TrEMBL record:
The keyword Ribonucleoprotein does not apply. The keyword Translocase applies. It comes from Saccharopolyspora dendranthemae. This is Iron complex transport system ATP-binding protein. InterPro entries: AAA+_ATPase, ABC_transporter-like_ATP-bd, P-loop_NTPase. Gene3D superfamilies: P-loop containing nucleotide triphosphate hydrolases. SMART domains: AAA (SM00382). It comes from the Bacteria. Keywords: ATP-binding, Nucleotide-binding, Translocase, Transport.
Length: 263
């Protein structure tokens, strides 16, 4: 049970406010997608929700303010995978993913069978088993991305914040990752917040979308409500058609201007 509530959050860097006026609720086991053009403030918002960036307003999980939680309890409550992670040198893939289990270890700090089982399952599900003993710095971009996500998933926190989790992943690995996250929310009631540039994937996986534009919420609702051709034109300056799958999920496809002489 880990519902998330954000109340009138504002955050930024030094004296510059980058995001403001964000209020939203994500039910236990729900999935909120944060979308918006480059520089809109998506990563800043996610970092502020994670408690990694000073902010005003409140972030509550099951009604409890995150700032009131001790470090270990907080790590069991909320997990965050950054868009561009800093990876420690010299660790193997397995050791790095095991770090995600730290908030669950007993007084001696030794991992047990259940921790290893969680890690092994993630290695399998994220197609990393063949890389288990490899050093982090030898991984390709997509392999590194999957390893970082595996660590955040190993944390088994009630709230999972993922910043652009599919960046650098091919279409198959992107789907496996999002399917796995979807299963965690169904099986464990994990509450998910992701930023996603791929609007079609965002529409397929998230229950609700929050569109940020210039740091403020410009639209908030179901994917079909938020992803309109007007919204794409206004906030992304994009030419795009919005098609729909039989169940009504929007599919965004860019369209090219057919100006004579430009092909
Ligand atoms: N560490 C920082 N210090 C100062 N300004 C920052 C910092 N990080 C981000 N910004 C600025 O804050 C604004 C929002 O950045 P942010 O990374 O949150 O946007 P975003 O929506 O995630 O963008 P993108 O889609 O390009 O990843 C941008 O103008 C950016 O230049």
């Amino acid at each position: 049970m880990s519902g998330l509530e954000v109340r009138d959050l504002a955050a930024g860097y030094r004296r510059r406010t980058v995001v403001s006026g964000v209020s939203t609720t994500v039910d236990t086991g729900g999935w909120l997608g944060i979308i918006g053009p480059n520089g809109a403030g998506k990563s800043t918002l996610l970092k502020a929700i994670a408690g990694l960036l000073g902010h005003t307003g409140e972030v509550l999980v099951d009604g409890r303010g995150l700032s009131s939680l001790r470090r270990r309890e907080r790590a069991r409550t909320i997990a965050y995978a950054p868009q561009i992670p800093q990876l420690p040198a010299g660790l193997t893939v397995t050791d790095y993913i095991l770090l995600g289990r730290t908030p669950h270890l007993g007084a001696l700090g030794r991992e047990g069978q259940s921790d290893l089982e969680v890690v092994n399952e993630l290695l399998t599900r994220l197609d990393l088993t063949h890389l288990a003993g490899r050093s982090l710095h030898t991984l390709s971009g997509g392999e590194r991305q999957r390893t970082v996500l595996a660590r955040s998933l190993a944390q088994r926190a009630g709230v999972l914040l993922l910043d652009e989790p599919t960046t650098g992943l091919d279409i198959g690995h992107a789907q496996s990752l999002l399917d796995l996250v979807d299963e965690l929310r169904a099986e464990l009631g994990t509450t998910v917040v992701t930023t996603l540039h791929d609007l079609t994937l965002a529409a397929q996986y998230a229950d609700d979308l929050l569109l940020l534009s210039d740091g403020v919420p410009a639209a908030h609702g179901t994917p079909a409500e938020v992803l309109t051709p007007e919204a794409l034109r206004t906030h992304y300056a994009a030419r795009a058609a919005v098609l729909h799958t039989p169940d009504g999920t929007p599919v965004i496809t860019p369209t090219r201007d057919s100006t004579p002489g430009t092909g």
